[in-house]
Write a structure and sequence with these properties.
This protein is an alpha+beta fold and 526 residues long. It is 31% helix and 28% strand. It contains 16 helices and 19 strands. Helix 12 packs antiparallel against helix 13 (317-331). The radius of gyration is 33 Å and the shape is extended. The N and C termini lie far apart (70 Å).
Length: 526
């Protein structure tokens, strides 16, 4: 009950999205403060049960007596001027995701609440905004300025805060007032299934007060555990976690700006200062950051997330700033400052133990730091997959024997398989080609004896005569991957009259079930 949960409910999210696009973000402000649009009633419609029905209404449409779920023809008959727009749930979800990103300015614990709400765990955060009352006012003022209608409530549990925001309860509820605040609300506020609410209403239970006075055992036997479980969760008798949209950062530092900034150089300077502030915390933990995230909050509510990674644990603020500079060089066109940025935050999402190294006497970096600096700059500018390294895997089947890993991870894998760690090295295999085809291609082969090496083969309409051949190297299939009936392969290293070297294999054996084995070309030697 020491928790404080803030619930945001957006009752007009679909119509607000359309109005924001048509008349700007400030369309909800009072008429005296902005150009208030003169508009017809607005509704969203979609096909439900093979009929067009209303799915969302704005305030003007509700004043005409229209209701959600009403047939579109009936709604037009009641309001001839009704402006109907096709429903777009994907666009509504994108807007709610954007609002959730913006809510990170208050707390990193932001969770989705259905299709039209958010849950924020503000425990220990309210004092940064002048207390809960100041935080509520700030959220309401900003979201209204963004053109969104919002109902806000704060309570000790997610269920209670949600019930108050959606069903007209108090805006702030203390732990000792939980039962009194919840009692007058309808049973639908407990997040019960509609059919369960209807069944409870048939026996006279219509509000939470009725459910509190009813005996628990008969209710549980007749309606299951859901009604009493939801009631206990709302009152704090049973725990109920919320699931944040994003993982919590290990460390975080932010700077709220009195005046918005617009220049990219100013953003980078702030990133460097925030990195300097995190250095002490990283040193105290004996760690260095491997993955950093820079959040830039624009004045109009849009949030930019920029991630950079390091190939080795990193603390140096100058190098962290340089990584973001490389990344912003690629994202310069996407990072639109608009009217400016008002908040900058730097998060450490991943960290590892930091090994302190003594630099050389001449001042140059040691222990391959030049290489890690180069890898970090390339990854920041071109992405993690720009540089890749083949890494051996625990498989003898050629298609699964290796994979291309990002270079930094590949180097770590090589370090782990070195003799100093006691880990086994890569498996011993025969000579392998420099290049493997993505998919082996079937070829036509002529051989002197059925199970001997090929004498010539035809590939891509070109006949090639073989002058040298080595093999076979027999590979048994991995039955745990391919099944017990998978045929073995006999591999040959061959060279044609032009000097080109190929890697061919024969799938299946003459003396077994295969009547005529097939031949395939899988790779090329240097």
């Amino acid at each position: 009950m020491d928790r404080r949960i803030l619930s945001l409910f957006f009752p007009k999210l679909p119509t607000d999205r359309i109005a924001r696009r048509r008349w700007g973000l400030s369309w909800r402000l009072p008429p005296g403060s902005t150009a208030h649009p003169e508009r017809p009633p607005l509704a969203c419609a979609d096909r439900v049960s093979n009929a067009l029905r209303i799915t969302a209404l704005d305030e003007a449409a509700e004043n005409f007596g229209l209701r959600i779920g009403q047939g579109l023809a009936e709604a037009r008959a009641i309001c001839a001027k009704l402006d109907v727009v096709e429903a777009d749930p994907a666009a509504d979800r994108a807007l709610l995701d954007a609002v959730a990103d913006w809510c990170d300015r208050y707390t990193p614990l932001v969770a989705m609440d259905g299709l039209d709400g958010l849950m924020l765990d503000i425990t220990g955060c309210a004092h940064l905004f002048g207390g809960e009352e100041g935080l509520i006012q700030d959220v309401d003022r900003r979201l209204t300025a963004f053109g969104l209608a919002v109902n806000i409530a704060v309570g000790p549990t997610p269920g209670l805060a949600r019930a108050c925001s959606r069903f007209g309860g108090p805006q702030r509820v203390a732990p000792s007032e939980a039962a009194a605040a919840l009692a007058p609300l309808p049973l639908a506020s407990l997040r019960l299934e509609p059919q369960t609410v209807m069944d409870l209403a048939r026996i006279g239970l219509k509000t939470v007060t009725d459910l509190l006075a009813a005996p628990r055992s008969p209710i549980t036997r007749r309606f299951g555990t859901a009604p009493m479980l939801r009631l206990d969760q709302a009152l704090g008798r049973e725990g109920e976690p919320i699931s944040p949209r994003r993982h919590l950062p290990l460390l975080s530092a932010e700077r709220r700006l009195a005046e918005p900034i617009m220049a990219e150089e100013h953003v980078l300077d702030l990133a460097g200062r925030l990195a300097a502030g995190l250095k002490t915390s990283l040193e105290a933990r004996g760690e260095g950051g491997r993955l950093f995230e820079l959040l830039v909050f624009r004045v109009d509510g849009r949030v930019f997330r920029i991630e950079v990674s390091a190939s080795a644990p990193l603390r140096d603020p100058a190098r962290i700033r340089a990584l973001f500079e490389e990344r912003l060089a690629v994202l310069r066109d996407d990072l639109d400052a608009g009217y400016g940025f008002e908040l900058v935050r730097l998060n450490v999402l991943l960290s590892e133990a930091f090994d302190i190294c003594q630099p050389a006497l001449a001042g140059e970096d040691g222990h391959g730091e030049d290489m890690t600096r180069f890898l970090d700059q390339v990854a920041a500018r071109l992405g993690q997959r720009a540089l890749r390294l083949p890494v051996s895997l625990a498989s003898h089947w050629p298609e699964r024997a290796a994979m291309h890993s990002p270079l930094a991870d590949g180097l770590q894998a090589l370090d782990r398989t070195s003799g100093t760690t006691g880990m086994p090295g890569p498996p011993v295999r025969g000579l392998r080609p420099l290049r493997l085809l993505a998919h082996a291609e079937e070829v036509e082969v002529m051989s002197t004896v059925p199970d001997g090496p090929p004498a010539s083969f035809r590939w891509r309409r070109v006949q090639r005569r073989i002058t040298r051949a080595e093999g076979p190297e027999r590979l048994a299939p991995e039955w745990w991957e391919d099944g017990e009936d998978a045929p073995p392969r006999d591999y040959f290293r061959i060279e044609d009259t032009t000097g080109q070297r190929f890697w061919l294999y024969r799938e299946g054996l003459y003396e077994r079930r295969t009547i005529r084995p097939s031949w395939f070309l899988q790779g090329f030697f240097a």
